[in-house]
Design brief:
Layout (H helix, E strand, L loop, with lengths): L1 H27 L9 E3 L6 E3 L4 E3 L2 E3 L2 H12 L4
Antiparallel strand pairs: 1-2, 3-4
This protein binds zinc ion.
The site of zinc ion has 8 residues, from loops.
């Protein structure tokens, strides 16, 4: 009978600990990351996360190639 009581106490502690762990989860949740912000590529219009964006002055680009092509196109613009 004593063993049953000990098991019950251990189960109750485990149960309480589980509830406490669960209730702490929202607090430890990762805050919305800075990569949530999307930038539109000035060349092709694709939206890219901020950490994958190439920036030049006020323009954002999805890739280094589009950054280069954008300014190449601007410079070589036929008249
Ligand atoms: Zn692009």
């Amino acid at each position: 009978m004593k063993i049953l009581l000990i098991l019950l106490v251990v189960w109750a502690i485990a149960f309480i600990v589980r509830i406490l762990m669960r209730s702490q989860k929202p607090a430890t949740q990762i805050p919305s990351s800075k990569t949530d912000k999307l930038h539109k590529c000035a060349f092709c219009g694709v939206h890219c996360p901020e950490d994958e964006t190439f920036r030049y002055k006020d323009n954002a680009f999805c890739s280094k190639e589009h950054l280069d092509q954008y300014f190449q196109y601007k410079d070589d613009k036929p008249e």
